[in-house]
Amino acid sequence: MILGGNISYLKARDMNNNKPEKHIISASAVIPARRERVYSLIANYRDGHPRILPKQFSNLTVEQGGVGAGTVIRFQMSLFGKKQTFRAAITEPERGRILVETNLESNGAITTFTVNPGHAPADSNVTITTELPVRSGFLGQIEKTFSTLLLRPLYVKELENLARVATGPFGA
Fold first, then answer.
1. What number of other Cβ atoms are within 10 A of residue 162's Cβ?
2. Which of 59, 92, 116, 166 could form a disulfide with 125 if both were Cys (CB 3.0 to 4.6 A apart)?
3. Mean pLDDT of residues grouped by 10 in the chain (172 residues)?
C-alpha cells in the first residue's frame, strides 16, 4: 500500500512537472576585428551571415528585409544525416550590439548574437547563445545533453568562421 501511494505521488508530480524548462547553450570568442565590422557581418543575412555559417547550415534564404531588424530568414540544418528547415525573425534589441533570431515555426528557440568591445580597440568579444525549451525530468536531461553536444561545436565553428571572414579582405 505504501509503495502504491508513492507511485501515485511520483506520477502526479511528474504529470504536473511537464512545463518546458529553458536550456541555454553558448559559445564565445575574441574576434580580432572591430565591433562594427563584426556586427555588420552577423546582421547582413544576404552577404555576411551566409559566409560564417558552418557546413551543417544550408539554403539560407531571405524572405523579407536582409539586414538586421525586420529580416525574416529560412534555412536548413543537417544533423545526423537529416535536414530540418527553420524559419526565424530577426530583431535588434540593441542595434550594433545585440541581434536576436527567434524561431517562428517549431520549438520557439531564441538565438542571440552579442558583440561587445574587446580589451584591445580592434577586438570584439562575440557570444552566440541559444535558449531552447526542453522537457523537465529525465527526458529533459537527455535533450539538454544532446542539444549541447550538437549545437556548441557548431557555434564554435561559426565563431572561427566569423574571425576568418572579419579579418580577411572586406569583400572576401
1. 26
2. 116
3. 39 51 90 96 96 95 96 90 91 97 87 95 94 77 74 93 88 47
**Interhelix angle 137-167/35-43, nearest 10 degrees:** 120
pLDDT score at 170: 58
Q: How far apart are CA 95 and CA 129, in angstroms?
A: 17
Name residue, grid cell 534589441: 93
CATH number of 104's domain: 3.30.530.20
Position 135 in a domain:
yes
Spatial CA neighbour of 163 closest among 59, 66, 41: 41
Which structural domain range is residue 109 located in? 19-167
